[in-house]
Structures
1.
Amino acid sequence: MAYYISPRFLNALAVHITKNFLDLPQVKMPLILGVHGRKGEGKTFQCELVYQRMGVNVVHVSGGELESPDAGDPARLIRLRYREAAELFKIRGEMAVLMINDLDAGAGRFDGMTQYTVNTQLVNNTLMNIADNPTNVQLPGSYDETLLPRIPIVVTGNDFATLYAPLVRDGRMQKFYWEPDRDDRLGIVGGIFSPDGLGHGDIEMLVDTFANQAIDFYGALRAQIYDEQIIDFIHRVGVENVSRNVVNTKTPPRFKKPDFRIDHLIEVGQRLVREQRRLQEMGLVQEYNQALNQSGAAKRSSNGNYYRAYQHGPSVPLQPVTPNSRSETPAIAKKEQPMTQPSISAPSLSSDIQKEVRNLIEQGYRVGMEYVDKRRFRTNAWQSCPVMSGGNEGQALETIERCLADHDQDYIRLIGIDPNNKRRVLERIIHRP
């Protein structure tokens, strides 16, 4: 199967690796390359393709290895794997790379509930120390005066804003945001379906039909096509005979080429999209997390949910966004104010938002606001506006208006918080850029 390597990805990775093995006079280069982007876009797989093409030896570290019940083990592991990569370089005479997958999952802090352990601190410090002294990496309890060759480090992740800020500064880490454009997507998807005889027009139609899907969606789609034949095989031999026909046999089953017509692919792809939507609409993780957050036994409400019942106020459709006017956002109605009046009056909010806020306060909930820019909206990395203190409706509306005015180019959502159980009862986007 001929896989596609994006020229942008190839250039970024190849330049970083090559540059770290060159002795450029008076040029300070970052040791770490951080490849970040949204989930499922093939960051790790593209790295592996580049390593294979360049003939680079790779030593892997998983983000799941960056925590341990024994303090200091993950930091020692990173030093050990770095020295292992240096040994490969010396023995084989070929370039070597230390690759850490999902660094943010192992060492990042996503919110106030993320535990910050001694190991997390030591991992950050170890990576910074290696980036500053790449030829002098020692194991705890020993010292070797022999200088090591400089070994580049490549890390992948979804959101490096969750990492310790001094680690990701430009002197230590070079950042590369991977978001495949349409040409990249056409090339990658064409490589996935290259054995199946799909023409360029079919690939374009498939990519354009599912334009918002990540790259791994198309790999899952191709695998899903084979399910039909496997189901027919199971029904033909019987469920109780599957093992002896698949494992304990000298003639494993063979399958004919599935139906890879473009209309059939789109039909199966739409089934996968429906399953994604069901997962998003269910939101069971909120229900389960709320149960875990409660100190005592959870009492279910009459609707069988862990949430305390919240009654929505009358809903009024939001007005469409008018691009060139800050005062015409969905949550702020048109209003002329004199230039000399700096204060913000709550009545300029739409009646819909005012009723929602009033409803929250009357039920004893606290009101909050969160915002996120267009790029971080994909990773759901929301940030909080100033917290609204007390239960005064006027102050809450004024704070909402101020947040809307300060972040008119961002997504903004209204949240309701149950102060007793420290959990959310409402999340509603009231403004889109």
2.
Amino acid sequence: MAEIPPNLLPDEASPYWMSKGDNAWQLTAETLVGLQSVPGLVILYGSIVKKKWAVNSAFMALYAFAVVLVCCVGWGYRISFENKMLPFLGRPDISLDQKFLLDKAYCDSGLFPIHVRCDHVLVAGALLGRMNFYAWMLFVPLWLTFSYTHTACSLWCPDGWLAKVGIIDYTGGYDRERFPPNNILLMLAGVGLLWIGWSGLNAGGPFAVNTDASLAILNTHVCTATSLLTWLLLDIIFFGNPSVIGATQGMITGLVCITPVAGVVQGLAAILIRILSGSIPWCSMMVLHKKIWLLKQVDDTMAVFHTRAVAGSLEGILAGFLANPKLNRIFYLHCIGLAYGLQNGRFTAGFKQMVVQFLGIVFVVVLNVSITSAICLLIQLVVPLRLTDEKLQTGDYAIHGEEAYTFWGDGEK
């Protein structure tokens, strides 16, 4: 950085080091990411479940958004990206101090205040109409603090062990058989907001206004659209009906699959990812789930195992196989996908990248399963994890004393 001229005093509101263009884009990207949750996921979760779970599901998403925001600026951000104690463990520290929030953050291509880098996480889809709301209130901040942040520290903190080895990551009970949405039109509105908001997530990854951000937006939308159409086509071929809910699942798997490679793939590689993101999760959900005994035991309201776990693992593998070395240099310098390694005579480097990707997947799965299980066992000592049979039968009114849909005169004499 060039030193500030002695006759030029810094403006505290607009310091000399800040890139106004990059900062404006980051603020826009973070706003889009926020819209994914509120109102995107609130509307989606409130409409994609049975009528009796509409209030509870929407409120789970809204509560999670609020408590995650508080936890992130309170301590989660610095555990994830600052003050590393161990290769996968950050040190908790408050980040509400004005000097910290308005200090500068360095990246490969821009300078902007730190506060615009605080992201949020929501986990609820697999638990809708299942988990005790009081247990959910405890689970979210605990899971964020002890699971998500340490995963983030390993992957995205410059000193995290997975970052150092060069991993590529661009940024039971009732109703198990029949769980229809209560409002498909609202469900489509929710997934639409989720889709558009994802632009901020992926295109905000470079932390700058550049061609890579433009590529990330293009890949995000085209991959999502292709994945949706692939899922829709498979539904028509094998089941005879163009399912709206199926198309929604295909859209979500497309968003998940493209995220870690949005800015590091192009051309035929991007086309292949688009097709696989719609077909492989479809196969795992619609075929394997009905045939494999272990998968039949999974009580997963919104098929999160397939749209997130299967699609997420697929994205990690495809990143190691198809990442373009020229685009990788923007972020990782030395990384090369196996496909390009075979083409350029760098098989060893490409094979090493695949090993790193598999290692990252195994680490994230083991860490999250272990910590999440421990958190659930701990919460169960305080409040029941699962709703009682009576509340499962009744739904929203038994939990919140409120219902999503009421008619004039209900409850009146």
